[in-house]
Design a protein that fits this description.
Largest sheet: 9 strands, mixed
Structural class: alpha/beta
CATH topology: Protocatechuate 4,5-dioxygenase, Chain B
Oligomer: single chain
CATH superfamily: LigB-like
Shape: globular
Length: 299
């Protein structure tokens, strides 16, 4: 019987971000140096998962709120872009590689989650094809580098969950969110706007002026609702505007976990710290993706 450790390779290194550890390290340091640590320590962050040339600077504003001295476990919830999934899935890997250093999966927490019967197991190929979790690994490694041998990760691929499923997973994960030694990373871009086959979303409120201003107004409406930490209002916003927030289900799980903890009078606040767009849409031939970075604190 083989004792070989199952590793997930850094499959998007060299395309979505640098495969060179030294170059990647310098880029991350540069972006982080431009961000302020205003609301540390974060218990959860929302950050984008596009190529670093597009969203690296934005993501830094969320990662700057991470306190490596207290964080011992990092949950990463990312949406499934390629595999049809109606539940959540766990990785078959034990180690996630990054150009900086390898991250190990917390097998005890994985075993506990698996026992609930609520999770599927994704294939290694599905895991390596997906970028929504991987794009957070180098930033996690960088944010945690001063304690790199003292933490583990818990990657969770989140499917197209119903409202009741979001509630179920939120309830399940709320006990982990209650623990100050855990950090939750919620992987999400915001509006994907354009006529192109990939997006097919062209909501436009002319009263806002240029198209990109309308997109920003729409996104910031959603961000304001997330800051209220109200899962029902967020669901209603999505139903009304159909905004193409690809991490809406991981966000929904977080909001439901927070709602569960608020029942026991835990005071929690969420603040967005940065917003950006890949380009400024001014006509119907244009397209763009929006990015937002924010952090949840517990008092």
């Amino acid at each position: 019987m083989s004792n070989r450790v199952v590793c997930r390779e850094a499959s998007h290194a060299g395309s979505w971000y640098s495969a060179s550890g030294s170059q990647l390290n310098a880029q991350l340091e540069g972006w982080l140096s431009q961000a302020q640590s205003t609301i540390r320590p974060a218990r959860a962050i929302i950050a984008p998962h596009a190529g670093y040339t597009y969203c690296g600077a934005c993501a830094a504003h969320a990662y700057k709120q991470v306190d490596p001295s207290i964080t011992r476990r990092v949950f990463i919830l990312g949406p499934s872009h390629h595999v049809p999934l109606s539940r959540c899935a766990l990785s078959p890997a034990e180690v996630y590689r990054t150009p900086l250093y390898d991250l190990r999966i917390d097998q005890k927490v994985y075993a506990d989650l698996w026992k609930t019967g609520l999770f599927e197991r994704m294939s290694l190929k599905a895991d390596e094809d997906e970028h929504s979790i991987e794009m957070h690994l180098p930033y996690t490694a960088k944010a945690m580098e001063s304690h790199k041998d003292e933490f583990s990760i818990v990657p969770v691929l989140v499917g197209a969950l119903s409202e009741s499923r979001e509630q179920e997973y939120g309830k399940l994960l709320s006990k982990y969110l209650a623990d100050p030694s855990n950090l939750f990373i919620i992987s999400s871009d915001f509006c994907h706007w354009g006529k192109c086959q990939r997006f097919r979303y062209t909501y436009y409120d002319e009263s806002q002026g240029e198209i990109y201003r309308s997109i920003e107004h729409l996104d910031k409406m959603g961000m304001g609702i997330i800051e209220q930490l109200d899962p029902i209002s967020f669901t209603n916003y999505l139903k009304k505007y159909r905004n193409t927030i690809c991490g809406r289900h991981p966000i929904g799980v977080l909001l439901n976990a927070v709602a569960e903890l608020r029942k026991s009078d835990l005071e929690m606040n969420f603040t967005f710290l940065n917003y950006a767009q890949s380009s400024e849409c001014r006509n119907w031939q244009d397209s763009s993706v929006s990015y937002a970075a924010g952090a949840l604190t517990v008092h």
